[in-house]
């Protein structure tokens, strides 16, 4: 499709734009390609004609088009070797024997979010695959509790519960004991139903303030069923990217992060078990972002890890980071 010089030119423009977020002009490319400015301009015009580059309204320079990024990813880019510092930070997570796998995955993706300034997402197994192993409650004061749910997959979630009135600590403990007795072994997304049909008829006989406590735990478990399988890190990172300095675009991105159905769709349409890249219109999340993701599978439990960033994403580094995480999860 393009000759060797045009490939090198596209590579330089993509990688320069990724670093600077500024359109690339012909003068800056002359030394690298050992060509005159006029020759570079002609080659840039050709790459623009075939849809690999775009010209902005505010500059005479060029930027990669969505098609240009795709060509770069498919035919030019090579995965970037991880730095010793990156490896060290991630090794500390995976060599920590005290961490449950789910925590290791979440913490490693938090580190990647920090390293790249992109948003990371961990989409674990569906809540129906997590069964309640234990429920604990830590009273904070007379009306505030922290409910902790531990699942058979080693997943730990907590929720802040604010009671509308003061409740005796003894009654809270009785309620938790009853819940543990009746719901342990129940899939999380079925707990609310079990509370309604098995716990509710019994709790009134043993707990005076049963209505307040029942409603609090019912709402908490409804939230658990929604939240246990989605973990974000660095949502604010997207808003720091120069592409997203428009107030309307910021609101749009934030609302999508809050929509669990949109977020859950990130794990759909995985092409293969490797690292998959969806640039702009190729993903269902937003035309102005790139999503790079991969699935993992450990002892029958599956999930998806992904990074969301601007189309001007550091593809070569992200691919290597995600591959490293996937390898360590599955080893």
What does this protein look like?
The chain is an alpha+beta fold. The protein folds into three domains: 4-76, Arc Repressor Mutant, subunit A (Orthogonal Bundle); 84-125 and 229-330, GAF domain (Beta-Lactamase, 2-Layer Sandwich), CATH 3.30.450; 128-227, Enolase-like, domain 1 (2-Layer Sandwich). 47% of the residues lie in helices and 19% in strands. The protein contains twelve helices and ten strands. The protein has a five-stranded antiparallel β-sheet with strand order 7-3-10-9-8. Strands 4-5-6 form a three-stranded antiparallel β-sheet, with helices on one face. A two-stranded antiparallel sheet has the order 1-2. A hairpin with a 6-residue loop joins strand 1 (53-55) and strand 2 (62-64). Helix 1 (4-20) packs across helix 4, helix 6 runs antiparallel to helix 12 and helix 7 packs across helix 8 (188-206). The two termini are 40 Å apart. The model has no long low-confidence stretch (mean pLDDT 87).
Structure described in brief:
It contains 12 helices and 10 strands.
Which secondary structure elements does this structure contain, and how are they paired or packed?
Blueprint: H1 4-20, H2 30-33, H3 37-49, E1 53-55, E2 62-64, H4 66-76, H5 84-94, H6 101-116, E3 119-123, E4 132-139, E5 144-151, E6 156-162, H7 169-183, H8 188-206, H9 210-227, E7 230-233, H10 247-258, H11 260-264, E8 276-279, E9 289-298, E10 301-310, H12 315-330
Antiparallel strand pairs: 1-2, 3-7, 3-10, 4-5, 5-6, 8-9, 9-10
């Amino acid at each position: 499709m393009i000759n060797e010089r045009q490939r090198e030119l596209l590579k330089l423009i993509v990688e320069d734009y990724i670093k600077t977020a500024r359109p690339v002009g012909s003068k800056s490319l002359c030394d690298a390609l050992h060509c005159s400015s006029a020759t570079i301009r002609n080659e840039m015009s050709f790459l623009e004609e075939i849809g690999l580059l775009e010209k902005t309204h505010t500059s005479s320079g060029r930027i990669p088009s969505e098609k240009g990024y795709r060509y770069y990813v498919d035919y030019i880019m090579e995965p970037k070797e991880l730095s010793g510092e990156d490896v060290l930070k991630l090794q500390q997570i995976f060599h920590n024997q005290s961490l449950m796998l789910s925590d290791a995955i979440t913490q490693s993706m938090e580190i990647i979010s920090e390293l790249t300034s992109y948003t990371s997402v961990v989409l674990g197994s569906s809540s129906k695959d997590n069964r309640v192993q234990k429920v604990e409650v830590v009273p904070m004061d007379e009306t505030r509790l922290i409910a902790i749910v531990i699942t058979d997959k080693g997943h730990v979630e907590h929720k802040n519960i604010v009671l509308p009135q003061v409740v005796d600590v003894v009654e809270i403990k009785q309620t938790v004991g009853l819940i543990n007795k009746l719901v342990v072994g129940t899939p999380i997304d079925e707990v609310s139903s079990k509370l309604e049909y098995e716990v509710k008829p019994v709790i009134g006989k043993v707990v005076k303030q049963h209505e307040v406590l029942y409603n609090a735990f019912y709402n908490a478990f409804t939230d658990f069923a929604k939240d246990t399988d989605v973990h974000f890190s660095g949502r604010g990172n997207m808003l720091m990217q120069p592409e997203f300095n428009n107030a309307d675009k910021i609101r749009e991105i934030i609302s999508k992060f809050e929509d669990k159905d949109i977020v859950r769709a990130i794990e759909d349409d995985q092409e293969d078990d490797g690292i998959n890249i969806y640039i702009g219109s190729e993903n269902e999340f937003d035309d102005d972002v790139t999503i790079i993701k991969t699935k993992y599978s450990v002892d029958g439990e599956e999930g998806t890890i992904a990074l969301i960033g601007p189309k001007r994403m550091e593809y070569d580094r992200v691919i290597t980071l995600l591959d490293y995480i996937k390898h360590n999860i599955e080893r």
